[in-house]
Amino acid sequence: MKSSRMMLSVLVPLVSGGLAAAAVSAQAADLVADRAVELARAYMKAKKIDKLEQNMLLNSLYRNAIGDFTDRWEKLTNIKVVSSPLGYTDIPSKIMAEAVAKTGSFDIFNDFPYTMPDAVGAGVVVPLDDWAKKGQPDFSGVAPGLKFQQYYQGKLYNVVLDGDHLMLVLRKDIVENPEAIKEYQAKFGKRPGCPETIDEWESMAAYFHTKAGETRWGMKFDKPLYGAMGYRSVNFSYRHFPAYFGGLLFDRDMKPQIATKAGIEAITKFTSIVKYMPEDVQGWGTPQIYPFWGSGQAFSVMSFPSIVGYGNSNEKSVVKGKQLSCLIPYTTWKGKRVRRAPQAAGTGYMVNRYSKHPELAYYFIQWFTSPRSATRRSRTRRASGIRSARPTSRTRRS
User: Fold this and answer.
1) How many CB atoms lie within 10 A of CB 313?
2) How many other C-beta atoms can be found within 10 angstroms of the C-beta atom of residue 200?
């Protein structure tokens, strides 16, 4: 899993070999945020505005993490940003409704990048390039594939802040249990640990799947221990499936590859492991999967990296210090082993063309997505709970 901002802040001093490089990085990070604050203050002064309120349509998954930042922005600029959380499946239609109504009731839209082309076509979002020339945001820490998602038809419309690639997590306390190691090694000829392949993951899921009331490896399971957990609902499956499918979903002529031999094999494996998952998993999203993982009722889970942060920080979690992070297992494509870690989620921030003060909306976005704010966001999100614990584009790739 590649990161951006936080990884950059760690790697730069290591590679450059000194505190001086770290200081330069920190200074640069400060300048991005500070410029946004100063430009917002200058705008307010020029317009003779003392206080102002702006509204943001926010993915509800982030509602627990946003308050600390909007409060700080208000203290710095006298601009109060009020967030209106909404489920991510409802946000695109809300944005397109604004294209017709032109109310200006929202200044900022937070949504997945796939909404951007339609929003641009409908004329409801505005290019950010002119304001970015003034603010000089720092996108150097954003991975190229994620950075590309900020642009449409050569213009900057969206500033990404989240781009979760998948990983696999196992129960460390179980795979390191001496009795489990002895039994597993006797059966499979190797110690349990991060599986090399998708097939091996299912094999492990089957082995560690445990019924309620059983005692295994000296551990008593009052509730079932499900061998695996992953996203299998309608709104998530298509984003997670590429981990099983080693190639592109369409060929050069845009013919779907889902009906090919490789596609059918991938679908078969994608569905086969479900029998070791919780019974209701096909209706679950992150709000169900994270707490279930934290409850200790699953041996493994394929999810976003923040699930580890959730497991370690949530007050109700019983898996603190008991998680083993793994890369996505290999699958096979045209006779070769390949590892696919899909970007299964990730949102950004756009500005409503009909905002009364769209320039101010941009300055908040630049400040909020700046490298310095990213460090604070990472800490806040880990302590906030479901998905608000998710590392950001600028703390993990970002």
Assistant:
1) 18
2) 15
Enumerate long-range contacts of 277-284, CB under 8 Å, 24 or more apart. Answer: 277/226, 277/227, 277/228, 277/229, 277/230, 277/232, 278/226, 278/229, 281/229, 281/230, 281/232, 281/233, 282/232, 282/233, 283/233, 284/231, 284/232, 284/233
Residue-range definition of the domain harbouring residue 262: 167-338
DSSP string, 182-246: HHHHHHHSS---S-SBHHHHHHHHHHH-B-TT-EETTEE-SS-BBS-----SHHHHHHHGGGT--
pLDDT, tens digit (0-9, with 9 covering 90-100), for 45-72? 999 999 999 999 999 888 888 999 999 9
Is the residue at 394 inside a domain? no
Decide: 299 and 208 in contact? Cβ < 8 Å. yes
Q: Do residues 333 and 225 share a domain?
A: yes
Tell me the per-residue pLDDT of 129-149, one tens digit each, with 9 for 90 and over: 999 999 999 998 888 888 999
CA distance 235 to 86: 16
Report the predicted TM-score, pTM, of the whole model to 2 decimal places.
0.75
Tokens 């945001």 found at: 137
What's the structural domain count of the chain? 2
Domain at 195, CATH number:
3.40.190.10
Residues 131, 359: Cα–Cα separation, whole Å: 7
Amino acid at 82: V
Looking at the structure, tell me whether residues 126 and 103 fall in a common domain. Answer: yes
- What's the CA angle centered on 119, arms 113 and 120, to 5 degrees? 100
